[in-house]
UniProtKB/TrEMBL annotation, chain A:
This is (Fe-S)-binding protein. Pfam families: CCG. Residues 3-84, 136-220 form the Cysteine-rich domain. PANTHER family: LACTATE UTILIZATION PROTEIN A, UNCHARACTERIZED PROTEIN YKGE.
UniProtKB/TrEMBL annotation, chain B:
Residues 117-218 form the LUD domain. This is Lactate utilization protein C. InterPro entries: FTHF_cligase-like_sf, LUD_dom, NagB/RpiA_transferase-like. SUPFAM superfamilies: NagB/RpiA/CoA transferase-like.
Automatic annotation (TrEMBL), chain C:
PROSITE patterns: 4FE4S_FER_1, 4FE4S_FER_2. InterPro entries: 4Fe4S_Fe-S-bd (IPR017896), 4Fe4S_Fe_S_CS (IPR017900), FTHF_cligase-like_sf (IPR024185), Helical_ferredxn (IPR009051), LUD_dom (IPR003741), LutB/LldF (IPR004452), LutB_C (IPR024569), NagB/RpiA_transferase-like (IPR037171). Signal peptide: none annotated. This is Lactate utilization protein B. It comes from Terriglobus aquaticus. Residues 117-136 are annotated as: Disordered. Keywords: 4Fe-4S, Electron transport, Iron, Iron-sulfur, Metal-binding, Repeat, Transport. It holds the Pfam family LutB_C. Residues 343-365 form the 4Fe-4S ferredoxin-type domain. It comes from the Bacteria.
């Protein structure tokens, strides 16, 4: 299958290794990856902070970049949640200026997949043939858990990784406290939520914590690093890209 | 406040509401729309009678209520046993209670519209019930003969309540549909003794209502 | 007696500031975490045993939506039927008007009690209870009378107790939690369990002091017993009660109150006068609709299959039912900003709320701060959307941002209010209020957002920003023991991040640069991972 990668603005800038891992997994599975060069951002930060007018022009840009894709894969459940929840409504507001965009969004959205969701739901895979000999715990990001209803998909993929020691995170359904601009606007509360999450992570004695969202991981990993815990954060794609070679 | 300014508040609020959602539509239109609302939940239960009764008993036990399964002939004797165990000599009863439920040797005092202070002198009250809901362990009492006014089953500390098996329904929707015809009566849903969880979320029995609930489930 | 600083969203500090103080209160956080953990576990258990739970949520949502859409019809129907059953319906546009109506009705009821000495409230020689000074209300106003109250957030919303006290009427809160709040000169922090921020030792101290007890155990049972003894005499004596309402039933003109302790039943049935204050949003179409809401409300609120007592009554009762309950019954319907909520089609679902508090228990923000940080009697996620709307979005503008948008509130809401969606919508309204022309230029956040928007609108600008960001950040980077670069200090608003977290430095190569390099080399075997 020809897969178009929407890397998302923050993965592009801050976590390119996650993108490289997505490419490695998809190519190992025999798929062709494309990267439309004009892509930038889904608009989530603006939209969720209340600057909805600033987010609007990013929708026609996304549609222009991906309208012909067979499948769009996005290594971020929060960006996919943003698109599924708000793009239809945004398209309504844009229809006058961009005739046909409502229909285009309706036809494009079913082809947009979060990375792990693409593997489990679109390709029907449980095992992608990875090897990762480490003790790992999985953080279910809120947007993956509730926004996309990923269920146990990501954990199934992880459980089938050879060599992995996968350990459950206590209170896995509880938010880590990132929440985009929330982490800055309500830094104290965000930190308090984060402290509960890092405590849960440390209690697992895992070497690394993984998730489908680098945004949560940036937040959790930032505290784990500040506290010099030695616990690493890795995007789920990086684990699934692992091989024995 | 004068009557006219009260009217103007009423009109101000209603006209604001109408200005937003539109004029009130006629009763038929609204009624049709109401009837078409989705109700895919379980209105009734497929469980058999025994299972329904056992569920009611289980729920009542869960609330720390005492349950006695009796035949109609055994009601009076069971009431006598409970009352004598409590060391009581008089029990409050509403008007219209079946005479056969009252054992000899206990003074049954009919509620004649006692004041709150007079009610407070009674330790126990004996009543019937309109129905019971198995799923939630709920007894429903209404202001009807044999059940009386609401205060009478509230102020005494012990409530003995007679429930006929034929009046036990499985689910809340079944109960509400049976109650529809008497919906305007003062109605109390009682699920176990008075309780609170206001302190550290610990459920404890007995605050202001009766702290002891005895249910006589009659075949 | 209800001193303390009343929760007033017009004067409350912004959420981040109020929350900072709460986050530092170890005892409070421990109490709130414990309570919310317990309720959540109980709720999950009793919700889990309902195979038709989602269908009940759908039905509840549909009933509420239908009601709000037909509010003029149902309000008038309720008024007509309640009046026909001997009740009196009053309308109040705002808090001041509602307070005035309730105070007047209470005064009239108390005056009626005086002119009928045989049933007068206070026989001579009766214990004086814990009145603040014999015959005197809190602030020195001569005591004119007393009322007993059922827990009602609507009366808290309009700050009714102060209004009553100011004319010498002493209100006794009778719900255990509200009693704790009243005696402790505190404020409610949760809509269902308002004293959840207090633990048993703290409650014991309040009771010992305020009930003037010599001995008191500290088990919840001991404390509840003390409340029973303290209030019993008030229930038997006081002839006027004030309540809220869970549901107003349009079809019958009836009212439904849901409670646990029996204090509600005492207030509803023993006094001669009952005054019920209810928002215009509290109406439901028919008696049968309770079959949905009486299943979802208790399970969501306290994690019980059914709460101990639900009372339904209609007016003052006719025929056989006459004499069951009060002789005088008043319903005060209050707007106080609810029509403001109604006017915003995208946020209107806020009015579907049945006040179960499940969103508060599920909210990870509420869990860390408790309710007082929200500066309103409506705390947690529902408060974050309701409070600013009730005030026309002119106050409490920080509340829509008091959420990480994690969605736990929506998941547990028994009437499926999409709280995250409303929060985001209201953030848009806050931004609208604070931007445009000069307001944008003087608003650093708006300027930053505008600049970021421009960057994302163009691939070229985005690339340039990535390069610039890397350069701008370089002076702040430090290498750790593993040789990775991290940033531990950021300026200005972004400093909130680096107070407790490091930020990994921007890598030297963005993904797109790597991709282009790989394309140039023409080899898809680029290094991964």
């Amino acid at each position: 299958m020809k897969v178009a990668l929407f890397i998302t603005c923050y993965n592009d800038t801050l976590f390119p290794e996650a993108g490289r891992a997505v490419v490695a997994v998809l190519e190992r599975l025999g798929h062709t990856v494309e990267f439309p060069a004009g892509q930038t951002c889904c608009g989530q930060m603006h939209y969720n902070t209340g600057y909805q007018a600033e987010a609007l022009p990013l929708l026609p840009r996304f549609v222009a970049q991906f309208r012909h894709a067979e499948a769009v894969v996005v290594p971020s459940s929060s960006c996919v949640t943003m698109m599924r929840e708000h793009y239809p409504g945004m398209a309504q507001r844009l229809e006058k200026e961009h005739p046909g965009i409502v229909d285009e969004v309706a036809s494009l959205l079913p082809r947009v997949w979060e990375f792990s969701e693409f593997l489990t739901k679109k390709l029907g895979l449980k095992d992608v043939g990875a090897y990762y000999p480490h003790r790992v715990t999985y953080h279910a990001s809120c947007h993956g858990l509730r926004g996309l209803a990923l269920g146990d998909g990501p954990e199934t993929l992880l459980a089938n990784v050879r060599g992995i020691d996968l350990v459950k995170l206590d209170k896995v359904e509880q938010c880590c406290g990132f929440g985009g601009t929330f982490a800055v606007k309500n830094a104290e509360v965000s930190s308090a939520m984060l402290a509960e999450k890092t405590t849960a992570v440390l209690n697992t004695r895992a070497e690394c914590v993984t998730a489908c969202d680098n945004s949560c991981l940036m937040h959790i990993g930032g505290a784990l690093h500040r506290q010099r815990t030695g616990v690493q954060t890795v995007h789920i794609a990086e684990i699934l890209a692992g091989d024995e070679a | 406040m004068t009557e006219s300014s009260a009217m103007s508040s009423r009109e101000a609020i209603l006209s604001r509401v109408r200005g937003i959602v539109g004029e009130a539509r006629d009763a038929d239109t609204v009624g049709l729309e109401w009837a078409a609302l989705p109700r895919a939940y379980n209105a009734a239960s497929a469980a058999d009678r025994d299972a329904v009764l056992l569920r009611l008993i289980d729920r009542l036990h869960d609330y720390d209520a005492q349950v006695y399964r009796v035949s109609p002939e055994e009601i009076a004797g069971t009431v006598r046993e409970i009352v004598s165990l409590l060391g009581l000599t008089e029990v409050l009863v509403p008007a219209g209670l079946a005479q056969g439920w009252l054992p000899d040797g206990v003074a049954f005092v009919k509620d004649e519209g006692f004041s709150p202070r007079e009610l407070d002198r009674f330790t126990a009250v004996l009543t019937g019930s309109t129905l019971a809901i198995a799923e939630t362990g709920t007894l429903v009492l209404q202001n009807l003969p044999g059940q009386g006014r609401r205060a009478a089953t509230l102020v005494p500390d012990v409530h003995l309540c007679v429930v006929r098996e034929q009046d036990v329904v499985a689910t809340v929707p079944e109960a509400m549909r049976r109650l529809q015809a008497t919906a305007e009566l003062p109605t109390t849903f009682i699920s176990g003794p008075s309780a609170t969880a206001d302190i550290e979320m610990t459920r404890i029995k007995g605050v202001h209502g009766p702290r002891f609930l005895h249910v006589l489930l009659v075949r | 007696m209800s001193g303390g600083t009343a929760l007033n969203p017009k004067t409350a500090p912004p959420f981040p500031i109020a929350a900072t103080a709460m986050v530092g209160n170890t005892q409070l956080r421990k109490n709130v975490r414990h309570a919310t953990d317990v309720i959540q576990a109980k709720r999950a258990r009793v919700v889990g045993e309902m195979p038709d739970w989602q269908a009940l949520r759908d039905a509840g949502s549909a009933v509420r939506e239908h009601t709000i859409r037909n509010l003029p019809f149902y309000l008038e129907q309720f008024e007509r039927n309640c009046t026909a059953a001997g009740g009196h319906v009053h309308w109040a546009r705002d808090a001041a008007e509602a307070r005035a109506i309730v105070v007047r009705l209470a005064q009239e009821a108390i005056a009626r009690g005086r002119t009928a000495p045989s049933i007068a409230g206070r026989p001579a020689g009766e214990p004086q209870g814990t009145h603040p000074g014999a015959g005197e209300a809190a602030d020195g106003v001569a005591l004119q009378g007393e009322v007993i109250k059922i827990k009602s957030m609507t009366t808290e919303e309009i700050q009714l107790n102060r209004a009553l006290e100011s004319v010498g009427i002493h209100p006794y809160e009778t719900d255990l939690a509200e009693l704790i709040i009243q005696l402790g000169q505190d404020q409610p922090s949760h809509i269902v369990v308002p004293a959840l921020h207090k633990n048993r030792q703290q409650i014991r101290e309040i009771f010992l002091r305020e009930m003037k007890l010599e001995h008191l155990g500290e088990s919840p049972q001991d404390l509840a017993d003390a409340a029973r003894r303290f209030l019993r005499e008030k229930f038997l004596r006081v002839e006027t009660a004030i309540s809220g309402a869970n549901f107003l039933i349009a079809e019958t003109g009836g009212v439904c109150v849901v409670e646990s302790e029996g204090n509600g039943r005492m207030c509803l049935t023993l006094p001669k006068t009952l005054i019920t204050l209810a928002g215009i949003d509290k109406v439901v179409p028919r008696f049968q609709d309770l079959e949905v809401l009486l299943q979802t409300l208790p399970r969501s609120a306290t994690g019980e299959r059914m709460n101990p007592y639900n009372s339904v009554w209609t007016g003052v009762g006719k025929g056989y039912a006459a004499g069951d309950g009060p002789e005088h019954f008043h319903v005060v319907l209050i707007d106080n900003g609810r029509t403001e909520v109604l006017a915003d089609a995208e946020a209107r679902q806020t009015l579907h709320c049945i006040r179960c508090g499940a969103c508060q228990n599920a909210c990870p923000v509420y869990r860390e701060t408790g309710g007082h940080a929200y500066g309103s009697v409506y705390a947690g996620p529902i408060g974050a959307i309701l409070t600013p709307q009730l005030l026309g979005m002119h106050y409490a503008q920080s509340l829509p941002y008091a959420s990480s948008l994690c969605g736990a509130c929506y998941e547990v809401c028994p009437v499926k209010i999409n709280i995250p969606e409303v929060l985001v919508h209201l953030r848009g309204r806050v931004v609208e209020e604070n931007t445009g022309g000069l307001k944008t230029i003087t608003n650093p956040e708006a300027m930053a957002m505008k600049a970021a928007g421009a960057i994302f609108r163009s691939e070229g600008r985005f690339r340039a920003a990535q390069r610039l960001g890397r350069m701008g950040e370089t002076p702040l980077e430090r290498r750790d023991g593993q040789g990775q670069k991290w940033v531990s200090w950021l300026p200005g608003m972004l400093g909130g991040w680096t107070n407790v977290r490091d930020l990994r430095a921007m890598p030297q190569q963005t993904f797109r640069e790597w991709w282009e390099e790989r394309e140039r080399k023409g080899a898809p075997a680029g290094e991964a991972g």
